[in-house]
């Protein structure tokens, strides 16, 4: 007969292994959902396109931001929306916001400035969408196509829905991971970020 200490140790190990297995199942399942959403373009007519911010370099959009803006221009010209919302605040040591750089880029590509809405607040997806939500109420905008990188879509849409924003996904294929390893890393990172938001409100 085993001693109480050994029985407790065995139960503890079994409990730990069960917890690790459950965590692995949740993580893998979330990663699968992230991947599936990344492949899904939910294109339909809406009130506005929302370009989520990304880095700007000395007043020029980074390649990631430029790809998002290029996709938004394409969708605009196809008639999916009559207005474009550009977003993103000012990063550390930056003199311009991501939204202002995106605004200028759209004008340079012949988008009517009266149809562009700049939301230059927000340092992450959550704070950006909160600022966008407030601006949507002021502008009487009810629905969005969210233009962002494919792995980011699930988390962005979840946050938007939680804030009462009717939104659909417009993945920027040009910003898709280019290798299997890059895809695994991006999906894993977004799965962790999604779980942190859902489970920990972070």
Automatic annotation (TrEMBL):
Pfam families tied to this protein: DUF218 (PF02698)
Residue ranges of the TM segments: 12-35
Annotated Gene Ontology cellular component terms: plasma membrane
Residues of the DUF218 domain: 47-180
Highest taxon, organism lineage: Bacteria
Keywords: Membrane, Transmembrane, Transmembrane helix
Keyword Transmembrane tagged: yes
This protein's record includes keyword Membrane: yes
PANTHER family registered for this protein in UniProt: DUF218 DOMAIN-CONTAINING PROTEIN, INNER MEMBRANE PROTEIN, PROBABLE PERMEASE
Protein name (Swiss-Prot/TrEMBL): DUF218 domain-containing protein
Originating organism: Herpetosiphon aurantiacus (strain ATCC 23779 / DSM 785 / 114-95)
